[in-house]
Specification:
alpha/beta, Rossmann fold, five-stranded mixed β-barrel, 8 helices, globular
Amino acid sequence: MDATQGQSFDAVVERATMTLQRRLQGRPIDWALICGSGFGKGLMQGDGGLGLAVEETIALAELGMPTPGVAGHGKALVIGTIGARRVVVQTGRIHPYEGHSVQVCTAALAAALACGARGVALTCAAGGLSPVLVPGDVVLIKDQIGLLGPTPLIGPRFVGCGALYEPRLRARAQAIAAEAGLGAMREAVYVHCRGPQYETPAETEALRRLGGDIVGMSTTYEALLAVAEGAVVAGVAVVTNVAGIVGLSHAEVEERSDAARPRVARLLAALLAEDPTAS
Ligand code: HPA
């Protein structure tokens, strides 16, 4: 049983929004950040973290949401500031493969958007499809293939997806990486696969031929919701493994993700300190 059983999708989003609104007490939000595998706890730490000045912590359960069941995922929505910007951080993700609808999985993001977030930063672990990517690489998502995955949009919401991952944010992230001595980051097309099983070699090859550079089990549907609600989106992925290999484990994914965390934190701390929609 989860906290959302018996409630309509709208009711889950409405409860999450009302709870967040009450805890914000009128304070504006600039950004929503979703932490992928292995990032939740680490990004909140003082050292090697985002440097978020925490104002409030709300358990996802208090928002009426299920608790992420996957190791390496936090269980809260944290409100805080980075410089002049207020950020709502979801410290752990809920995935469709855990048995929840995509509307339930995105309820906290929907709440942050309803409370005024104009920028959304998505982080995730992913398997590498492109032969130029190696485990440990931190890449910017430049586009996605969500054809095989779920969408949180219901009804005639014909959202343009010509620039899902805002080019200005990508350029800003590249400039930040160069300044921080992280070097030029590769930009990648993210393909969604539902999981929880990893891909077979045949599936991996098929995804490569479709045009994917990296593969993961989240992210695409969050980007769709954010853009549908008028926000700009940045996506940062850590390549934790070569996709489709023999002997892949979640522990390995978590380990690689954790090792990349300081680089991801430096990048995000600088990106989220800026106005998401400044030109
Ligand atoms: N496939 C799908 N999702 C993933 C992978 C992968 O190889 N690695 C991390 N998340």
